[in-house]
Amino acid sequence: MYPRTLYPEISPFHTDFLLVSALHTLYYEECGNPQGQPVIFLHGGPGTGVAPSHRQFFDPAFYRIILFDQRGAGKSTPSGELRENTTWDLVADLEKLRTHLGIARWLVFGGSWGSTLALSYAITHPHPVLGLILRGIFLCRSSEIAWMYQDGASHVFPEAWEKFIAKIPAGERGSMVEAYYRRLTAEAPAEDPSGRLEAARSWNDWENSILHLYPKTDSAPEDPQHTLSLARIECHYMNHRAFMESDTYLLENLARIRPIPCRIVQGRYDMCCPAVTAWEVSKALPQAGLRLVPDAGHSAFEPGIASDLVQAADDFKELFSQ
Predict the structure, then answer these.
(1) How many CB atoms are located within 10 Å of the residue 219 CB?
(2) Distance in angstroms (rounded) separating the CA atoms of residues 66 and 196
(3) Domain residues of the chain, as ranges?
(4) d(CA 29, CA 207)
(5) Which letter does DSSP use for residue 18 in this model?
(6) What angle do CA 107, 140, 263 make, to 5 degrees?
(7) The pTM of the whole model exceeds 0.90
(8) Do 31 and 10 form a contact (C-beta atoms < 8 A)?
(9) Is-contact 297 212, C-beta < 8 A?
(10) Contact at 8 Å (CB) between 280 and 248?
(11) CATH architecture classification, 14-141+245-321
């Protein structure tokens, strides 16, 4: 048994939309204490959007909890839109949202892709970042993308991998990301509108198969638009290596954020974002505390990971209260 569990379910005290470009409008919500310490939650994917359970990592009596759907995700519009959708657009959106909400500085919480975005934001705008909580760190390097979508996790989940590659002819399997990207971005013929949706289902099924230490067998009813937008946005970012200027951009620029307090929570058996990346980041950020959860995969809701994430947010609560 782990010592900490999620805080009780809560509802937002404020929801709204923010126009961040002529094309994109973001959904955001605020929960907890309106006068509390601001914390921004960065969801994964990219493209998953936020969920009510994401509010529960934080003490609602202490924190002003801000969640938002990144471009094209969740309730943000246009759904699944790939134009004007890069890491650096999202970094700029964070500053627009912070300014819009009148926040001077905030705690930044990001897991999986959210850790990529959190690090990108902190490196670009270190001053507003009071602290970082990172989970399942992903730097979007070629080696990490290959592990996930080409040759790595496939050796651990061969039955799921077989289904994933079955949608792609043998001659195109040299780059599964490129092969899926072509299908997810192709114009869907009027006589076959489900072509892209079938590719999206296959893409998402592969990821869902490797998220947990013990794979889940239950599933929620499908929302076809969410299925399609998630796969499109995620594949878009993987195909462009998150629009980084070099393969090691984030790792090489971590020195910029060494003064920022940081906590890292990582599942030992994370098959999406292997632990070696979190280890490398912790070595580059000596101030960061790394917790390797011994019986966990990738999901933030593995009991050990959820416990450590709640503890990390409470640790920062104590730090901010001093």
Answers:
(1) 8
(2) 33
(3) 14-141+245-321, 143-242
(4) 27
(5) E
(6) 30
(7) yes
(8) yes
(9) yes
(10) no
(11) 3-Layer(aba) Sandwich (3.40)
Query: What residues act catalytically?
Result: 112, 270, 298
Measured CA angle at 190 (ends 189, 193), to 5 deg: 75
DSSP state of 222: P
The Cα–Cα gap between 288 and 225 comes to 38
Q: Which of 9, 15, 49, 28 is nearest to 225 (CA)?
A: 49
In this structure, which amino acid lies at residue 259?
P
pLDDT tens by residue, the chain, 322 residues: 799 999 999 999 999 999 999 999 999 999 999 999 999 999 999 999 999 999 999 999 999 999 999 999 999 999 999 999 999 999 999 999 999 999 999 999 999 999 999 999 999 999 999 999 999 999 999 999 999 999 999 999 999 999 999 999 999 999 999 999 999 998 765 555 568 999 999 999 999 999 999 987 777 778 999 999 999 999 999 999 999 999 999 999 999 999 999 999 999 999 999 999 999 999 999 989 999 999 999 999 999 999 999 999 999 999 999 8
